[in-house]
Sequence to fold (225 residues):
Amino acid sequence: MSSKAVVGEIVSSGTRKNWKPTALPADPEATRQLQEWLASEEYNLNGMERDFRGADLSGGDFSNAWFTDAVLVGVRLVGASFYRADLQSADLTGADLTGADLVKANLDEAVLRTARLNGTDMVGASLYGTDASGASFRTTRFLGASLIDTDMRGADLTDAVLDENIFEIKADDSTVMRGLTGTVFGPVTVFSGESSRELAGTELEAWIAERGGQVRVLPPYRTPQ
Fold:
């Protein structure tokens, strides 16, 4: 079953039991918690503050799970589903989330440095204060996601898709925007050495266009009188 097929659905415990991790975490407490969850009738995994390093959890369904403050450094999570999962403040440095489902996931203040998120579905996800520097988001769908104070310096957004995104990211000349398309609300803070400047409106459109993207910057929301 693909990650897309389970969006918005509760998968039965029987379906979950048919999935097994390719490799278990090195930490015995994280392994115990994962095994207990697989053997139980409970749907939501509580992986808060657990250390999952060394694991290969590719293809797992972690919809609505709790990974707050969890350590997922270098963990393989290819094609896994994190629909509505809480990954706030989780450390996913160098993790492989290629093709993962992160629809409506909470990634506020998470660390995604050098992580691979190519082809992920991040519709409606929240990335407030997230460190995604050096991460790869090739062909990622950010539709309706909120990126506020998100550090994307050195990130690769090749062929990523945006749609009415709050796009208040940090970027620099090493941020790849080739083929980036869609609509956003700015501004973007562009860093150059020790200095920085905010770009919005047509100036932001031109800056992205110079880097091979085609993004339309929308006027800011206005509160009805």
